[in-house]
Specification:
single chain, alpha/beta, Rossmann fold, Glucose Oxidase, domain 1, six-stranded mixed β-sheet, four-stranded parallel β-sheet, binds FE2/S2 (inorganic) cluster, binds magnesium ion, metal ion binding, ILV_EDD_C, Sugar_Degrad_Dehydratases
Length: 571
């Protein structure tokens, strides 16, 4: 055993300080030999009953601990701030950065040699990765896995996506409120994250693709026995990572991020991956820009037929072979020699995973769609960029000119969207302001503005919508998101008025407001600055320091790697 091991600077001393450190843990029943220099593995847990998608992570942590003990390590489980998409207000995104600080500071300030990161619900994955990347210990992630396929009366119920669809039916008068409530428990049948290719499954897929988790991590259902066995293996491998000194930064590289961006296109993954991967890259010092998402993956075909871009759900994706099959199908389009936490390359991890011919994962010769990457738009309406997921939009709206129907903020939207008097038509462009990182605050998932009820009743199923908000990974439509700079940070989105003509041209990557510069300047001088409200607390810190979507909406002072060194002891 090495005297250099990080945890031994806590436990290795024969002095009063070593006594304190060991004695405290012996109070939990740990025998003396646990402090003999064996790798100490933190199990960083986002378990919380306020994050129901992560409610089974205490159980998974037990299986991780078994694997750690089996490999000769000492597991120590600890909680960090969790982020529950279904409950938290005003937006989990506002607290992603706070959770990442919790992770970073807890890892650095405690006697840990390596860490297993347990995440599930959307923001918990990037929060843990961001915090861990700033510390750079040997690290491995374990995702909670998706919930089982939901069904009611023989109809499949996709998480999130099904809710939006059913609520549109309620608003259009074709579903009763009683049936709507009845569907609640049918959609979420078990522990686990959304059963669609929403943000949680997308980020779990990114983690597996980047080589930060064991092979199979993304798709095994939350309650499948194989998820527990994966947890056991993850704990075992964490101990070996410490012995090999295989740090997060060895695996999390420009190449692995490019792999993630490409696989995200192939799986029809969430637009939220953009802000999360940009934020993670920002912690590592790896250069990654918004434009990379378009440049690196524009030509990648959509292979995975999952809601919201396709038909099936995560259980079907697991049965079809999951991410390893997708990686093999993409083949040379990926950096297959990228190192991973298994100690093997990405290509070696997935060797032989060719699938069995399931319709859920298509071949590159027969894709669901060509060119499925996220498109990055620019123009006078989004000088620093905006994004759209063409695979989730009605194709005839990807080139569109229409008159703006403007909502100044979310309250204005809620008050007027279903007003029968609203001057809106199927070819109008719905614009929402004030929903960016600073404006809302917290850049909520409100970018898929509801289609006005009177248009729904007339059979309209998609419209061009533009905002500085995000969109749930389970949502769909011709939705332009993440407009930067946002309206509350002086972006031109703030200057749009009812009746202005907006041109969207996705093939040309263009988002243009047909109003001349002089008129925009006049409007700007009338509108003035958007002051930062004096809220106090974390919100104040967030408002003062959050960056725009095109750089990941992290707090500016959290960018970069600060390492695991601590200059002072505590006693
Ligand atoms: Fe938690 Fe979708 S709400 S994963
Ligand atoms: Mg979501």
């Amino acid at each position: 055993m090495s005297e250099q091991r990080r945890s031994q600077t806590w436990f290795g001393g024969a002095d009063k300080i070593g006594f304190f450190h060991r004695s405290g843990l012996k109070a939990m029943g740990l025998p003396d030999r646990m402090f003999d220099g064996r790798p100490v593995i933190g199990i960083c847990n986002t378990w919380s009953q306020l994050a129901p998608c992560n409610a089974h992570l205490r159980d998974l942590a037990e299986h991780v601990a078994r694997g750690v003990y089996e490999a000769g390590g000492l597991p120590l489980e600890f909680p960090v701030t969790s982020l529950g998409e279904t409950l938290m207000r005003p937006s989990t995104m506002m607290y992603r950065n706070l959770a990442s600080m919790d992770v970073e500071e807890t890892l650095r300030s405690n006697p840990l040699d390596g860490v297993v990161l347990l995440a599930g619900c959307d923001k918990t994955t990037p929060a843990l990765l961001m915090g861990a990347a700033s510390v750079d210990l040997p690290s491995i992630m374990l995702s909670g896995g998706p919930t089982l396929t939901g069904r009611r009366n023989g109809v499949q119920l996709p998480s999130g996506t099904g809710t939006y669809a059913m609520y549109d039916q309620v608003r259009a008068g074709t579903m009763t409120p009683e049936d709507f409530v009845g569907a609640e428990v049918c959609m979420w049948r078990s522990n686990g994250s959304c059963n669609t290719m929403g943000t949680a499954s997308t980020m779990a897929s990114m983690v597996e693709t980047m080589g930060l988790a064991l092979t199979g991590n993304a798709a095994i259902p939350a309650v499948d026995a194989r998820r527990r066995s994966l947890a056991h293996d993850t704990g075992h491998r964490a101990v070996e990572l410490v012995r090999e000194d295989l740090r997060l930064s060895t695996v999390l590289t420009r190449e692995s991020l490019e792999n993630a961006i490409r696989v995200n296109a192939a799986i029809g993954g969430s637009t939220n991956a953009v802000v999360h991967l940009l934020a993670v890259a920002g912690r590592t010092g790896v250069e990654l820009s918004l434009d990379d998402f378009d440049a690196v993956a524009a030509d990648v075909p959509l292979l995975v037929d999952l809601v919201p871009s396709g038909r099936y759900l995560m259980e079907d994706f697991f049965d079809a072979g999951g991410i390893p099959v997708v990686i093999n199908r993409l083949g040379d389009r990926l950096h297959l020699d990228a190192p991973t936490v298994t100690g093997r390359t990405l290509g070696e991890n997935v060797a032989g995973a060719t699938g069995w011919g399931s319709p859920v994962i298509r071949s590159v010769d027969d894709p669901l769609q060509e060119n499925a990457g996220i498109a990055v738009l620019r123009g006078n309406l989004a000088p620093d960029g905006a994004i759209i997921k063409p695979s989730a939009a009605e194709k005839d709206l990807l080139v569109h000119r229409g008159r703006a129907v403007v909502f100044e903020d979310i309250d204005d939207l809620r008050a007027r969207i279903d007003d029968p008097e609203l001057d809106v038509h199927a070819d109008s462009v719905l614009v929402l302001k004030g929903a960016g990182p600073k404006g809302y605050p917290g850049m909520p998932e409100m970018g898929n503005l509801p289609i006005p009820a009177k248009l729904l009743r007339a059979g309209v199923t998609d419209m061009v919508r533009i905002s500085d908000a995000r969109m749930s990974g389970t949502a769909f439509g011709a939705v332009v998101l993440h407009v930067a700079p946002e309206s509350a940070a002086g972006g031109p989105l703030a200057l749009v008025q009812d009746g202005d003509v907006i041109e969207l041209d996705v093939p040309a990557r263009r988002l243009h407001l047909e109003v001349d510069d002089a008129e925009l300047e006049r409007r700007r001088s009338v509108r003035g600055e958007h002051p930062i409200p004096d809220t106090g607390g974390y919100t104040q810190l967030y408002l003062q320091h959050v960056t725009q979507a095109d750089t990941g909406a992290d707090l500016d002072f959290l960018r970069g790697k600060r390492g695991s060194g601590v200059p002072r002891a505590s006693h």
